[in-house]
């Protein structure tokens, strides 16, 4: 699908056209609103399925990110998964996944709607410049729109992400346990104050820009290159197959998460700050792990005490889950889309 088609088929663009037609006395159907709702349902289901499938790797990634360097329990992907299985059983592999899935639907909804709005607004402003009247969305414009959508969606659902992180980290040996997402949110609010709900928010905001931006830029650039260059004569038309799009999406996700990963590590560590009940973030003598006064302080102390490599703890399981997660998201979304009759893809 070309950028022109994306803009033309955007539900937000359709809404704008319907409003214009309504102002001119022409009756237009409420088709666009229904299309948005169906797309959000499909996207939410796809996100939940894909996240659940890679939940063990997601939990291990977070445990690797925040474990105390003086009390190593998880030394790698295979060893870490075996350790979780032996100490917490099958359910331990999926700890925190319910909270993770609970935030997928609103996060996808806000991100989708925000991206469509931002894309249309940025493109409209760009076309106001002389010589750009017929311009279409470029990778750079998509980067900006994706960054805006990512920041808005992340900010709207950040407390749930913090609760999910803490539920994921706690184990059966934790002195005090959260019983669920809402209990975690209430406990944090009561014990640590409202500001604690947004611990690690700044590195998250900074990390969203390269992550979401590069996802769009790399994905679109790869698709354009494959369509235009037709390497080895593999492609004869202007549309790429599902397998090729999956490969492009996997490459884009890998590049984006690798660049933004250190900020994700810092975010997780800041989220755990002030919480002394996770066995993975306390020392052997029961004392709390290192406290951080801010993002820069977290970077400095992490590198000083554990080395630069600590900024990429958990990268392997995170990278391993990128490809199956994206693949399952696409397959699940297509299945739900066929059932509901969705016409516009969230990925577009």
UniProtKB/TrEMBL annotation:
This is Mitochondrial carrier protein. It is a multi-pass membrane protein. Belongs to the mitochondrial carrier (TC 2.A.29) family. Solcar repeats lie at residues 34-121, 137-225, 240-339. The lineage of its organism: Eukaryota, Viridiplantae, Streptophyta, Embryophyta, Tracheophyta. GO terms for biological process: transmembrane transport. Its main location: mitochondrion. GO terms for cellular component: mitochondrial inner membrane. Keywords: Membrane, Mitochondrion, Mitochondrion inner membrane, Repeat, Transmembrane, Transmembrane helix, Transport. It is found in: Mitochondrion inner membrane.
């Amino acid at each position: 699908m070309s950028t022109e088609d994306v803009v033309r088929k955007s539900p937000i663009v359709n809404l704008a056209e319907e409003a214009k037609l309504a102002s001119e006395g022409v009756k237009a159907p409420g088709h666009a609103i229904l299309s948005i709702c169906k797309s959000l349902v499909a996207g939410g289901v796809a996100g939940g399925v894909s996240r659940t499938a890679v939940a063990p790797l997601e939990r291990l990634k977070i445990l690797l990110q925040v474990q105390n360097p003086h009390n190593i329990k998880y030394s790698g992907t295979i060893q870490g998964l075996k350790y979780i299985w032996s100490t917490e059983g099958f359910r331990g592999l999926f700890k925190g996944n319910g909270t993770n899935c609970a935030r997928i639907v609103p996060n996808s909804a806000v991100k989708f709607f925000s991206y469509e709005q931002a894309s249309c607004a940025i493109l409209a402003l760009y076309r106001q410049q002389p010589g750009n009247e017929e311009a279409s969305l470029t990778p750079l414009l998509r980067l900006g729109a994706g960054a805006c959508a990512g920041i808005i969606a992340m900010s709207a659902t950040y407390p749930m992400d913090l609760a999910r992180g803490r539920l994921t980290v706690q184990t059966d040996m934790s002195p005090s346990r959260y019983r669920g997402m809402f209990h975690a949110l209430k406990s944090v609010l009561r014990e640590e104050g409202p500001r604690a709900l947004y611990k690690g928010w700044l590195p998250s905001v900074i990390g969203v820009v390269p992550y979401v931006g590069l996802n769009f830029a790399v994905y679109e650039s790869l698709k354009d290159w494959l369509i235009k260059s037709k390497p080895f004569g593999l492609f004869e038309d202007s549309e790429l197959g599902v397998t090729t799009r999956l490969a492009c999406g996997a490459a884009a996700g890998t590049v984006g998460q690798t660049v933004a990963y250190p900020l994700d590590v810092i975010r997780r560590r800041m989220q755990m700050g002030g919480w002394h009940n996770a066995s993975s973030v306390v020392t052997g003598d029961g004392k709390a792990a290192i406290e951080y006064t801010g993002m820069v302080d977290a970077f400095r102390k992490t590198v000083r005490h554990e080395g630069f490599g600590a900024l990429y703890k958990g990268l392997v399981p995170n990278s391993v889950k990128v490809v199956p997660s994206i693949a399952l998201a696409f397959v699940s979304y297509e299945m739900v889309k066929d059932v509901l009759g969705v016409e516009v893809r969230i990925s577009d």
